[in-house]
Write a structure and sequence with these properties.
mainly alpha, 7 helices
Length: 157
Amino acid sequence: MARPIKQGLDYFPLDVSFFEDIKVRRIRKDCGNQAIPILISMLCSIYRDEGYYVGFNSDLTFLMAEQFGVSEGAVADIVQKAVSVAFFDEHMFHTHSILTSKGIQKRFFEAVTRRKEVFYDATFMLISVNDYNNLVNVDNNSINDCVWQAGFPQSGN
């Protein structure tokens, strides 16, 4: 029996200006310092499982609260604040009870451009996936994606 195709990511880029982002600063100011690791853990859940969203439910709230030693109410407050400052998309949160954003979706689809297949639910999309369908797949094309610039030695030299 074939192993199921992995949907999520093993790692994701975290912007070096994450802590300076006005949205993150507002969340931390209103919800306390424990909001930061909870936000990062939520991003991990998003990228690890579906890759571009996670369902917000009592199980996720419980797991986050247990992991960081805070109340489930504190986790819910952090999520509410994150939605109110547009860290997560408000429409998707209220309509589908999911946590996602345009930035999350862009980073996910950029990360999976080399995959032969990526499954997604169009209902949850905030970006145009067509922008990512036409990218060169280096596994299927003869174009070399490793371009060496002058002054940078190639390996083995």
